[in-house]
Amino acid sequence: MGTSHRRGYTYTWLPNHLQDGRGQVSPRTLLQAVSTAATITRDRHPTHEHALHYDAIRASVSTASQIRVDEITEDIRWAAVAVEQLRGGQVPMQPSVVLAYWRDASLSVKLREVLANGSQGSGPEDVDNHRELIEELERLGVMTRRAAGATDLRDYAVDIPDVYRLAFGIGRKGGVSRRAH
């Protein structure tokens, strides 16, 4: 989306960047993105001929991402804790890299602490089986596989949809930029 020959389809751009790994968009996330884009357009591009400026739409994805991450943190705390450990990384990444991040962060210990509380939603089946955690996060739509049909962990790369990736501070080469803090 933008002014160059690679600008894409503006009508599908926003929902494509707000959808999770299952292709679903949270209504609250979409409404937040449109509201933020309208405010940015009003404040920064008051003479723009359309209701939403493309730069405002692009900028709104980061705000909407934070809303979605807040929702998943409230509903499925363990998933948020797992993805948070990838902060500063860049997707797509090999599963072995994800496992290394989690091992270095002592993810199993952190997940046990979250699950001990008991009020943070259901937990993963086995906090020590990090390969299974990747698969559970895929089922939740928080992670996806980049190679279609791959069944072996060595045959694919882990990806994280923009709606989660941005708020968790995870980069993507050529993707929507993370906001500088």
Summarize the helices and strands and which ones pair or pack.
Elements: H1 10-18, H2 27-44, H3 54-75, H4 77-84, E1 90-91, H5 95-104, H6 107-117, H7 130-140, E2 144-145, E3 158-159, H8 162-165, E4 171-172
Parallel strand pairs: 1-4
Antiparallel strand pairs: 2-3
- The whole-number mean of residue pLDDT values reads 87
Strand/helix succession? HHHHEHHHEEHE
Q: What's the total helix number? A: 8
Report the oligomer. single chain
Strand order of the largest sheet: 1-4
Shape: elongated
Can you tell me the residue ranges where pLDDT is under 50 for at least 5 consecutive residues?
none
Q: In which range does the helix fraction lie?
A: 40-55%
The CA-CA distance between the termini, in Å, is 24 Å
Provide the β-strand percentage band. under 5%
Question: What is the gyration radius calculated from CA atoms?
Answer: 17 Å
Number of strands: 4
